[in-house]
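ok so for the tutorial part 2 we go from a plain amino acid sequence to predicted structure tokens. step 1 is just haveing the sequence, like this:
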Amino acid sequence: LAKKIVDGLRVDERRIAENLRTYGPFSGAEAILIEAAKRGGDRQELHEVIRESAMRAYDALAAGDSNPLASLLAIATSLAYLGVYTPLKTRTVFATFIGAFPGAVPPLIGWAAARGSLGPGAWVLFAILFLWQFPHFHAIAWMYREDYGRAGIRMLPVVDPDGRATFSQILFCAAALIPVSLLASVTGLAGVRFYFAALLVGLLLVEVCLWASASKTNVRAKWLMHATVLHLPLLLGLMIFDKFSR
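step 2 — the prediction. this is what the tokens look like for a chain of 246 residues:
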């Protein structure tokens, strides 16, 4: 990995690393570059740091410090996203449904990394994130359906000009998100306070979905998109608050 990075670089590592430090790392190689930037020095020194970092990562894997289940889930997610979902985006409207599976796996990876196995709570988090994606991404796709159409990406709103199917799916998934969220309390992942808070938050999201569906304008779709952006961290934040306040 280090050799490929060093031999293949045709850009200023420090500039990339500074951007990554600002916006966050997105891959192991980029994380290595961030560490190199923090160390400073000339190009040769940066390359040495890259080599050292890659060797430490290899040693950790060889020593068994990595979690096999978490690693397997991460690899499967990458393969599904890049090898299945991405090519299908220009071929079928079902790409969003297929992509929602790898899109909902990160909670499983975190759970597996922390506990070494997957319990009921992990699957509740998976289901929450799976359903949440449809109101969120369909709202975005509705706003930019013309752009998606010109790009040849077959999002549902592109082939659904009146929006009936799009907003029906938005409403269905938002409504289904309520009982799925309540399962966190049923499985013991959260308590009674979260149950009622999640019920309220879920009903509010459904109300916004109904409001957006009534006229199907880009303005209302944008408000729906903002509502989904608020909904997920609020729901998970309530879960955390409930957990630590018991």
